[in-house]
């Protein structure tokens, strides 16, 4: 019995020991398998991410979302080791402890508390992950900026950049043309559309309002869908509605077309400068962005030359009855759409910005474009054998933004969701411009842009209005006055201009095939007279008496007869037209275009000086110095008492102030990172157009009243802008953020 008992005890000990050994072996195998799976997962993640980031970065960035695999693990092996060793060691199936506790399953009596703790923990983890993601993204952007500058140095500056320079120059030229179109066609369009003074004012401002909206919208979209694609869309809208505006007949439809055309061209300036800057190395950026500004001047010269060559030729027109008329000014509007169309055609041959692709995690597309830049420049320089040595480029990690559209969703519902998502992305990116990091810079830039635009646009529109006012004053001084004249049996078949006839008597006289300009008849008598084929402007009959007089095919409507008596007089086949307060003759039209041509051409010296000195003296000195000199030049306006003096002052102011505009454009491009560049530029340019509307409205209201207020407003705004500009950070010599 003792032997049997000892045998059974030994056998039990052996079985118990074997069970313990089996349990330990099972635990070790489980841990090894877990480690193997983690190792395989980590190796796959490293291989997938290797082309975007070097291997030593994988150990530095824990808990951060990657481009391909979502998030890195936070010490997964250590956590697994602790989980396998601590939570289950010393327990087996005979233990009375509730096993669900080790699997993360709460007991029935602790469900509510566990659920609340889980939600809080998830929120805290999400916040930590987002903060880590932002930190990682910022570090990636800094590394990308340095590497991208090195790559641009290797690519060099050559044929590719110069080709892109002329392509984007056409887009900038289209913006310059748009500013001048309405101002040049207003005198002629006034005749066709019977425009009142308020209507003319609205037509002049509507382009700026459209450009304000367009700058904000297209600038935001360019940071989301790409510079090239957004610029193509905006220029297409500008071209289409500029074409339509050449043919529409009514004032409302013409106003709408010019508004839409302005919205389209509004994206030109913020996108063009951002787009071009991302192909320029640091030592070339300031100079070549300043050279690019010359195309805005070329646009103004083109518009002035085309207006000079086309609009005064009234024979370039046709009409279909009285309902449809196509005069020479409509040909001018059509011709002004050519730069935009040419820019679209040329832009289709150019690639997207590689910097935009890298910011959005598209490594291969960016690499191919940079290789194209390198090879194009090297072939043009005679070194076709040089190989693009870059194999891996840093990309910025992306946060996946997935939207479940559903399989059964209608197409319009999918588009609605896509557009809504895009709107939220654009708006969120815009709000980051006012984040604590950029808030001070943005507010300072807003003040500088507003002050510059308020004074510049206000004065550049005030100058021509002052010239017109001086012309009217000089014209009025040459008015001839005739009193108590008696004219009988005389035929007038020549132009009557700038005369006042008081208490005259006209008997059996004929007024045939003539033009009356600025003619006034007061307290006069017309008896048995005959008026045929009369075209008049600024002509009135006041307190006159007409006896047995016939008006045939004239525009002497009854509203030109002020307090007049008509006795046995008849109007037959009156001309259709409008009551025009003033119509400039052909010489005055040429003068308007010539003044605009000179004012635009005068900025050429300022463009050249700013381009040559931008990278030598810095952006801030250029901006502040030009603003101060412009401020001083404003005080010379008080000496502008003649037409020639005002033209000279206009050229002086334009030539000096253009340097500050060039510096401001370069500074805006370099102060904001690539993912916010066009958004910030578009917003500031929209603010610029708003300031332009305010400046034009305020300054022109003082024409003929006083010069003191415009001088004080302009000089004060420029002084404030130059002072604030010195508070901005200098960006010369820095890589593009």
TrEMBL record:
Top-level taxon of the source organism: Eukaryota
GO biological process: chemical synaptic transmission; neurotransmitter transport
Keyword Zinc-finger: no
Name this protein carries in UniProt: Synaptic vesicle glycoprotein 2A
GO cellular component: neuron projection; synaptic vesicle membrane
Organism: Larimichthys crocea
Membrane-related topology note: Multi-pass membrane protein
Keyword Phosphoprotein belongs to the record: yes
Compartments, record wording: Cytoplasmic vesicle, Secretory vesicle, Synaptic vesicle membrane
Similarity annotation: Belongs to the major facilitator superfamily.
Chain segments carrying region Disordered: 24-95
Record field: compositional bias (Basic and acidic residues): 35-53, 74-90
Gene Ontology molecular-function annotations: transmembrane transporter activity
Pfam families linked to this entry: LD_SV2 (PF23894), MFS_1 (PF07690), Sugar_tr (PF00083)
Keywords (A to Z) from UniProt: Cytoplasmic vesicle, Glycoprotein, Membrane, Neurotransmitter transport, Phosphoprotein, Synapse, Transmembrane, Transmembrane helix, Transport
Domain Major facilitator superfamily (MFS) profile per the UniProt entry, residue ranges: 164-732
Transmembrane segments: 162-189, 201-219, 231-252, 258-277, 289-311, 331-350, 443-463, 590-613, 620-639, 645-667, 679-702, 708-726
Comp. bias intervals (Basic residues): 24-34
InterPro entries linked: LD_SV2, MFS, MFS_dom, MFS_sugar_transport-like, MFS_trans_sf, SV2
């Amino acid at each position: 019995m003792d032997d049997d008992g000892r045998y059974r005890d030994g056998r039990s000990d052996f079985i118990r020991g074997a069970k313990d050994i089996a349990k330990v072996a099972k635990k070790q195998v489980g841990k090894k398998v877990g480690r193997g799976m983690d190792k395989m997962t980590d190796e796959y993640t490293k291989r997938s991410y290797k082309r975007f980031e070097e291997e030593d970065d994988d150990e530095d960035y824990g808990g951060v979302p990657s481009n391909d695999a979502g998030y890195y693990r936070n010490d997964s092996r250590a956590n697994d080791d602790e989980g396998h060793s601590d939570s289950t060691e010393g327990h087996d199936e005979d233990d009375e402890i509730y096993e669900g506790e080790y699997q993360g399953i709460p007991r029935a009596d602790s469900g509510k508390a566990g659920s609340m703790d889980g939600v809080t923990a998830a929120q805290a983890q999400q916040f930590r992950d987002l903060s880590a993601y932002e930190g990682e993204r910022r570090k990636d952007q800094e590394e990308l900026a340095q590497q991208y500058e090195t790559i641009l140095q290797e690519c060099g500056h050559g044929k590719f950049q110069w080709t892109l320079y002329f392509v984007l120059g056409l887009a900038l030229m289209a913006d310059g043309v748009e500013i001048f179109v309405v101002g040049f066609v207003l005198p002629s369009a006034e005749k066709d559309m019977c425009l009142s003074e308020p209507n003319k004012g609205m037509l002049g401002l509507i382009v700026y309002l459209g450009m304000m909206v367009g700058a904000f919208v297209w600038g935001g979209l360019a940071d989301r869908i790409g510079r090239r694609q957004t610029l193509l869309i905006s220029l297409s809208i500008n071209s289409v509605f500029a074409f339509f505006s050449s043919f529409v007949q009514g004032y409302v439809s013409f106003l709408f077309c010019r508004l839409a055309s302005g919205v389209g061209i509004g994206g030109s300036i913020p996108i063009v400068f951002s787009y071009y800057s991302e192909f320029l190395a640091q030592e070339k950026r300031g100079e070549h962005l300043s050279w690019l500004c010359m195309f805005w001047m070329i646009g103004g010269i083109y518009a002035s030359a085309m207006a000079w060559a086309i609009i005064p030729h009234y024979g370039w027109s046709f009409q279909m009855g009285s309902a449809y008329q196509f005069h020479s000014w409509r040909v001018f509007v059509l011709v002004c759409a050519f730069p935009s169309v040419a820019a679209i055609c040329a832009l289709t041959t150019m690639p997207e910005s590689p910097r935009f692709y890298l910011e959005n995690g598209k490594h291969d597309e960016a690499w191919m474009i940079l290789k194209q830049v390198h090879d194009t420049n090297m072939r043009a320089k005679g070194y076709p054998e040089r190989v693009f040595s870059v194999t891996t480029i840093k990309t910025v990690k992306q946060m996946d933004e997935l939207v479940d559209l559903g399989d059964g969703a209608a197409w319009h519902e999918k588009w609605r969701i896509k557009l809504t998502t895009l709107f939220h992305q654009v708006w969120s990116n815009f709000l980051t411009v006012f984040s604590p990091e950029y808030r001070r810079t943005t507010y300072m830039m807003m003040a500088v842009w507003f002050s510059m635009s308020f004074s510049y646009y206000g004065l550049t529109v005030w100058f021509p209005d002052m010239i017109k006012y001086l012309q009217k004053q000089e014209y009025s001084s040459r008015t001839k006055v005739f009193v108590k004249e008696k004219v009988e049996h005389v035929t007038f078949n020549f132009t009557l201009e700038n005369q006042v006839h008081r208490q005259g008597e006209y008997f059996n006289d004929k007024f045939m095939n003539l033009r009356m300009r600025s003619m006034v008849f007061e307290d006069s008598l017309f008896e048995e007279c005959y008026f045929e084929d009369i075209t008049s402007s600024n002509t009135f009959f006041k307190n006159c008496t007409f006896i047995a007089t016939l008006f045939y095919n004239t525009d002497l409507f009854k509203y030109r007869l002020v307090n007049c008596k008509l006795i046995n007089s008849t109007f037959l086949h009156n001309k259709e037209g409008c009551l025009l307060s003033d119509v400039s003759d052909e010489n005055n039209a040429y003068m308007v275009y010539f003044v605009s041509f000179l004012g635009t051409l005068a900025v050429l010296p300022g463009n050249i000086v700013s381009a040559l000195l931008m990278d030598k003296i810095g952006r801030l000195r250029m901006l502040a110095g030009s603003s101060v000199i412009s401020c001083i030049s404003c005080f010379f306006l008080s000496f502008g008492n003649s037409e020639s003096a005002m033209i000279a002052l206009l050229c002086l102011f334009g030539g000096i102030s253009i340097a500050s505009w060039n510096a401001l454009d370069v500074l805006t491009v370099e102060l904001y990172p690539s993912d916010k560049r066009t958004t910030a530029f578009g917003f500031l340019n929209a603010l610029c157009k708003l300031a332009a509307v305010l400046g034009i409205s305020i300054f022109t209201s003082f024409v003929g009243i006083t010069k003191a207020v415009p001088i004080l407003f302009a000089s004060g705004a420029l002084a404030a802008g130059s002072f604030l500009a010195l508070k901005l950070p200098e960006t010369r010599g820095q890589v593009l953020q």
